[in-house]
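Q: Given only this backbone (288 positions), what sequence would you predict?
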């Protein structure tokens, strides 16, 4: 097991070593200014933040990186199904939200759209609203919860009509600087799709619904046992599992550089950059 400690000169860290006075995200600030939007309540510029789609400046790059890794893994899993497998991996080519899935007959057979709406709305009401959702709620409070449910977009959906099982798949490619990132991201993934699983369980008790998460670190941290376990659940041929893991790990590492390059380029593009944000000052240590 290899743990890597890397220092990225994000504002939060610079503030800690007294090189900056504020911790606000410079990329979010710049993007919001360009849109003439309010720059009040800026998020903190932490490693986690700049590595997430929540950062206005990094969202496009981070999302593209996520898709680059996940879509390849998904296609590999699709191609390596056991010959007798009755699983159908619903394609993630286009973003398939729950509403789009329920336009297909085989999903409608699990339970009707009407029944699912009914069950989901109650569950959604118990889930607190995120900061960015306030505007949509104010626009249409009566439809907000229903719409939020139907717009939920898992990374993948796997259906087996014969066994009456449906799996919701989520891929988290996360900053792995904190030791507990696996648990944090696993919880986050489950929370994200909790309403889908709970609403389906309430609407179609004769079916089995389970969420399967692939939680991995930015620099290639994959828990092998978990990975093989997930592949097993998805009927991946035993003889093909090692190859899938190998190719996948290689693929995980590639976009990390792209993401970091995008961050540094954008920071250097800002005026009045701190000397400490230059690439030469990045320390990197590896412990084996
Ligand atoms: Zn940001």
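A: Predicted residues:
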């Amino acid at each position: 097991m290899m743990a890597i400690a890397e220092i990225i000169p994000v504002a939060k860290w610079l503030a800690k070593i007294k090189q900056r006075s504020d911790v606000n995200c410079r990329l979010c600030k710049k993007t919001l200014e360009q849109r003439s939007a309010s720059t009040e309540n800026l998020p903190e510029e932490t490693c986690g933040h700049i590595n997430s789609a929540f950062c206005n400046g990094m969202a496009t790059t981070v999302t593209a990186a996520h898709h680059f890794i996940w879509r390849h893994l998904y296609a590999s899993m699709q191609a390596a199904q056991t010959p007798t497998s009755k699983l159908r991996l619903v394609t993630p080519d286009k973003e398939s939200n729950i509403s789009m899935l329920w336009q297909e007959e085989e999903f409608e057979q699990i339970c009707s759209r009407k029944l699912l709406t009914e069950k989901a709305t109650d569950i959604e009401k118990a889930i607190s609203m995120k900061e960015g959702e306030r505007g949509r709620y104010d626009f249409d409070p009566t439809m907000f919860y229903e719409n939020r449910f139907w717009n939920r977009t898992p990374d993948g959906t796997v259906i087996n009509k014969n066994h009456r099982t449906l799996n919701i798949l989520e891929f988290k490619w996360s900053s792995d600087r904190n030791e507990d990132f696996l648990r944090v991201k696993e919880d986050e993934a489950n929370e994200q799709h909790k309403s889908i699983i709970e609403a389906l369980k309430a609407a179609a008790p004769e079916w089995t619904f389970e969420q399967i998460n692939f939680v991995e670190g930015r620099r290639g941290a994959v828990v092998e046992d978990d990975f093989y376990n997930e592949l097993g659940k998805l009927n991946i041929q035993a003889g093909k599992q090692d190859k899938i893991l190998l190719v996948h790990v290689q693929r995980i590492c590639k976009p990390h550089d792209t993401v970091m390059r995008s961050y540094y380029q954008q920071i250097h593009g800002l005026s009045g950059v701190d000397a400490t944000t230059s690439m030469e000052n990045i320390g990197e240590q590896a412990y084996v």
